Amino acid sequence: MILCVGFFDGKSTVYDAYIGKTIRITGVVETLPTRHRQQVRFVLGKPVINGERIHGKVMTSVSCFGRKGYLKTLQPGDIVRTEGALTLPNGRRNPGGFDYRRYLKSRGISAQIYVPYKHKVTIAGQWYSPIFSILKLRKSLTAACNQYFNQRVAHLLTGILFGDLQGDTQLRETFADAGIAHVLAVSGLHVGYLCVAVWWLFKAMGRKEAQVMAMTAVAVGFYIVLTGFAVSVVRAAIMLMIPFWGRITKRHVDRLSALCVAAMIILAVAPYQLWSVSFQMSFGAVLGIILLYRPLVYRVTRGLDIRSRCGKWLVQSIGLTIAATIGTLPATLYYFQTVNVIGLVGNLLVVPLVGILLILAFVVIPFLMVFPELAQVIVILPSLLAKFIFALTDRLRALAFFNFHGGALSLAAFLLIVMFALLAAGYFNLRHYRQVMVVSIGLPLLIFLTLLPGWLPQGLKITYLDVGQGDAALIETPAGGAYLIDGGGYEDRIPGENAERTPISEQVLLPALYSKGITHLDGAFISHNHADHAQGIEELAWKIPIDKIYVSTKYNGWLRRQKKIPVAVLAQGDDLKTKDGLQVAVLWPERNIEAVPDDQQNEVSMILRLQYGRRSFLFTGDAGIETELRLDPQAIDVDVLKVGHHGSASATSAAFLKSVTPVIAVISVGQHNWYGHPTSAVLKRIRRSGAQCYRTDQNGAVELTTNGKALKIKTYE
Hints:
By secondary structure, the chain is an alpha+beta fold. Helices cover 43% and strands 17% of the residues. The chain is built from 22 helices and 25 strands. Helix 5 packs antiparallel against helix 6. The protein is globular, with a radius of gyration of 29 Å.
C-alpha cells in the first residue's frame, strides 16, 4: 500500500457528462462496505472519473458474483480503481415509494455506479484519516459480535450500537411490525446512556467539571464517528452538550433552544438534511416530547390523583410515547404509511430492556476483544436478554392488526391533530374568552376541511405502477372502490447471478395502496400466469383482504390451494360494472380454456377494456400480434393503451395501433432490463400513431385521472 498525498488535486467538474456511460473511477472508500443482497455497497469519496476530479461522492455497488473473498478485505481509506455504469439514483417512483435519490443526496452522494462481476475492483493505495481508523475499529467490534454471538443476537447488538443490522431485513421488519423499530436506530437514548456513563465515571475519579465535560465531548464525538455521523446521534450530542456547557458557565439553556441550535448546526453543514427522513423523524420526535410530554403527564397525574411510583412511571412512559408519536406522525405516514398503535405497549415493555442490553453491549463487546478466552461466560447475560426481547417482540408482532395504515396527512388534518394535542396538554385556557373562541371556531373548521375532500366528487384514477420488468395497474373508482390489474413480480432469469428478491408487495404494492388509504381490494385481475404479472397478487392475498380474483384460464397452483378468496374465470363477452359507472369488458380469451403451459400463457392473456364516461382504457397483458389480429377493431378503439408485452416486438403491430388510435400509450417496463424492452420498432410505431408515450422505466408510475371527459396525467419520476 502507498500513502497518497495530493492525489486528488484538480478542477472539479459535474456528473452530467458521464451519466448513463461506462466510466473508469478512482476514489477513497469512505464507509464500511456492507452486503446488500448480492451486492457489496460502499461510498467512494474524492472521485476521479476518466481522469477528471469530480466534486461529491458516489454510491458504489459491486456484484458479489465470482468474488466472494477479496471484497471482504476492503477497508475505509482504501483507494480503489474500477469501472462500471454511472447513473442517477431513482427518486420516488411510485405512490408511497422510497425516494432513494433524496436519501443519498442528504448524505452528499450525487450519483451511483454499478460494477458488474466482469470488472475488477483494484486497491491502489491508502488514504489515512482518524475517521477511517475509528470505522475500522467498528468493523472489528462487529466482527467480535458475529464471532461470539449467534447471528440474530449479533445483528441486534450491532443494530442498537451502531444502527447497522448487517442487512438483516427480517429483523427490521419484525421490530417494525411490533412498533418498536426506533430501538434499532441509534438515537438520543444511546447518546444519553453514553454521556451519563462517562460523566459519572470521571466525576467519581474526582475530575473537575470542565475536564469531565471535555472527556464527555471526546467520547460523544468518537461515538458520532462510530455510528457514521447519524443525524439523530449528532442532534442528541449537541442537545446534551449544550446543557453541560450551561452548567459550567452557570447559564440556563432551555431544551427548545438547544433543539433549534442543533438543527441550525446540522443544516449549516448539510442543508439537504432538511429533506431526509432521519432528520424529520428525529427532530419531530424531540419537538413533540418538548412541547407535550410534561404538560400531558402533569394533567393526567393531577387529574387522576396518581401518587404511586408505578402509576407515575406508567403515565410517564405512555406520555413519552404519545408525545413522540404525535411529533413524528406526519413523517411516519408520508414515508411509511403505517402508525404502529401496538408500539404504545412495545415501548413500555421492550425499550427499558433494550436500554439495559445497550449498556451491556457497551461493556461486553470491547471486553470480548481483550479477553476472548472468557467469551463463553461473558456472552451469557446479553444473549439471554436478547432472546427475551425477541420473544416479547414476536408476541407484539402478532398484534400488528391493530396498526393503522394511511397516506400522508393533509395540512388540515395535521393542524387538527396539533390542536387536539395542545388542547389536551393544557395550552389553551378555556376560561379565557379569546382562547375559547379560537378552539370553538378552529376545531369545527379543521374537522370540516379534513373531511371535505371525501365529500367532493371524485373521478376515475388509474395508476400504472413501476414494478420493474412486469405489469401492475391500480384502479380507483369514483366511489372509493379499488382494483388491481396484475401485480408485478420478478424476471424469470437474471444473467450472471441468482439475485435475492424483495417481495414486490412490500416494495411497491402495499406502500402504494396504503399511501392512498386503501386497505382492501374489491377485486384483482390476473391477466395470465407469469410471475412478472401474478406474483404480486399472490403475495397480497396473504396480507390484505381481496374480495375476488379474476383469471383468464382454469387455474392451478396457489389459487387452487387457497380457500379464502373466491376465484372467477373470465372470458370474451363477460362484462363487469361498478355502482359508480365504471364498465369493464373482457375482450379475450375465448371461453373454457384449460390451464396452459408457460410458453403458451401470453396468447391467453386477459384483455380488458375499461370505460368511464367518454374515456376508455385498454389492457392487453402480454398478448402478441396473433391475438391482436383476432380482436374486434371497434372494441379496441380507446383513448389510453397499456402497450402489450412491455414493448416487445412480438406485440403492438402497426395495424393494431391503427385500430386502437390511442391518445396515450403506457409501457410498463423495467430499467436496464436484459430483454431489450421496449424495442425501437415498437417505439417508432407508437410515435407514428401520434400517441404520447410514457414509460415506467423513465417516468416512474404514470397516473391518469378522468371525470369521464378531461384526462389528467401525472408521473412520479
